[in-house]
Amino acid sequence: MKTIHTQTLFARALVAGFIALTLSLRAEAAPPARKGSLKVTKECSENTGAAGSFCTITSSNLAEIKVGSKVFYDQPAGIPTGLLDSAVVLDAGDGNRALGRCTLDFATTLGLCTFSDGTGQFAGFHARVDVSLLPDSSGFLWSGTYFFTETGR
What we know:
The protein is α+β, with helices and mostly antiparallel strands. It contains 1 helix and 8 strands. It folds into 2 domains: 1-30; 35-148.
């Protein structure tokens, strides 16, 4: 009886060890998610406040967000009163687009933008950035974090 019990415990330990080894190998085989801090500046001299207006990226620490990329705003500014609250498309050209939403309070010039996915090199892109007016009032700063999820490609 004691031999059967010892054999059962040994078998269970062997199976548990095999499962743990398999899970750890899978974790090592999966590529780590790309993530980091995001700093972007943009200027909005061509933004009229109408739906379809845009701002232009002037600097970025993320290679996918190239200088010259455009941020298009789907909704007009001022709805609701005193805010910009709009779906946005960050267009880096060649079908590389990130999809998100931005809200800016005109009274404080502070806001928030979030991105939840994209196409091309922005597939699996996620970001959350605080928006603020640059000290010299020449444009806006996005400061926050980003990560890319695996898209199954």
